[in-house]
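Researcher: Please translate sequence to structure tokens.
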Amino acid sequence: MIVGFIGLGTMGANAARNVRRAGFDIVVYDIRPQAVAAQLEPGVTAGASPADVLTRADVTVTMVFGPKEVEQVVRGPDGFLSAGCAGKYWIDMTTSSPKLMRALAAEFGARGGHAVDAPVTGSVDAAIRGDMPMFVGGEDADIEHVRPVIEAMGQLRKVGRYGNGYVAKLVNNQLWKIHAAAIGEAMVTARLAGLDPLTWWNVMKGGAADSFVMSHDVPSIFAGHYDPSFPIALCLKDLLLIKELMDETGTRNELTAATHARFREAGERYGPGAGEMTVCKLIEDDAGIDLRVAGDWVKPWEVQHPLATAKTEG
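Model: Translation complete:
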């Protein structure tokens, strides 16, 4: 099985490396030539376009910025639909619009292709290690066919029909962003009331307030970098998609709307490239305090794959 990989950003580049580590020959494409060049090694070749990658691969993975980009990959002049789709498998890992993606998958399927959606959660360290949880939707036979590729990148979590993966990813990120926005208020309140930040963090974990944000993301506040591997621009893109989904379903969204406003404020103050946890820096700066904690806080993007670590130690 030859695997195509389109989209070599922070998450995609590491996911592609794990597909190669699993023994698959891969064909890679990105609009940035330097991103493609960074992947080239024995067993990895460069594709000329999305259509070229689809033609040369048995299974093609896409992981691009958002709906506009994935639509270009599929419907663009050199997109999938300009190539032969029959018998081809497509795994999309983009955080995107369920409505749009179901339409694109239907067009791909009408030409004989098989689509599976598998958006991921976690951070860049999970992408590096190859243990990203992946929300996987599609026909059971299609999922089983591509299971080896998915499991080379992360943990397969079935969510039902195609498109449900995008829904799961959006509501996952909805809760993630709400907690990220709220945690800054809790941290600053505790600090101003006399509770040491490190003590606060240690006693919160394992209790009712615990979460991925608590255990994984708070150290980026202590370290002062606020995790730029997932920038505010991506947070705002996700929050807009979440708003669209909630508008479609008619769901009340006061908490999500307040979170969206807080992230917009963070983007305006610190810039779209600032780390996601600068949504907490807003509260910290406005209170005139510093939540830095001395320690060896490992940056998520500096984590190594277990095989790379074993090779270094050996």
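Researcher: Any highlights?
Model: The mean pLDDT is 96.
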